Amino acid sequence: FALACSSTAFALSLLEERRELNTTYGTKAFSVLLFQDVAVIPLLASVPLVAALYAGGENAVAFDWRSLMWAALAIIFVIIFAKYIVDFVFRIVAVSGSREAFTAAALFTVAGTALVVDMAGLSMALGAFMAGVVLSESSFRHQIESDIEPFREVFLGMFFIGVGMQVDLGIVRDNLALIFGCAAWLIILKMLILYALGRLFRSASSTSLKTAAILSQGGEFGFVVFSLATEGNLLTPQMATILTAIVTLSMIATPLII
Q: Is the dihedral of CA 113, 122, 126, 36 positive or negative?
């Protein structure tokens, strides 16, 4: 599932640079990316649950219903917060006329949601992602987007720096052939599946090919899943490093494929 996700940040950046976001294939690619972003919610939520079951071994129960209940309550709280409280809070902040206060409120919403979800036993990454969904539903979303725009590239850069710092170059060097081979297979397999789906749903051959090309790489959510899975002892650090290198290589190859 982690390898199936394409990179929203990377693909959208390429589409915007080429001014092809509003083309037929750009619209189709964006639709797939948007759906993948939503699908990441249950994926991130499932990793700690699977890790708990895996840690229990043969004696593990089917589910820890108490943990599941707290996780469900946390998600319900976030949904209610998004629907009834966010706009009210931002309306009060907007009255102050302070742009800094508006930005601080947006960042506080992200941090607060991440902490609530983390306290419920799910990952902070899931909480941060849900906070983004919450803010996108606000009637002040355009103002919020404008205010946090300067932070976006900085935080994205910090995220990729953090990913890079976790990579053991010795492991990459020792498994170079495996990484290159798997990256090639990942790209080819994703392109074949995407092209076939495009043709199945009656897209033109050129549109299907371009959509397959722009979505052929692994995504940044893969890095998050690999990290969470390593923390939960679902992946060894060596395996996580190899998978991270495979996704990174597929990203590097995407502009060349386009």
A: negative
Tell me how far CA of residue 148 lies from CA of 76, 87, 141, 182, 183, in angstroms: 26, 17, 10, 37, 34
- Helix, strand or coil, per DSSP, at residue 147: helix
Residue given tokens 């923390």 in the structure block: 231
pLDDT digits (tens, 9 = 90+) for 119-138: 877 777 777 878 887 787 77
CB 144 within 8 A of CB 106: yes
pTM, two decimal places: 0.75
pLDDT in tens, 179-193: 999 999 999 999 999
User: What radius of gyration do the chain's Cα atoms show?
Assistant: 20
The per-residue pLDDT for range 57-79, each reduced to its tens digit, is: 554 445 566 777 777 788 788 87
| Dihedral pair phi/psi, residue 121, rounded to 5° | 95, 0
Q: Quote the DSSP letter at residue 57.
A: G
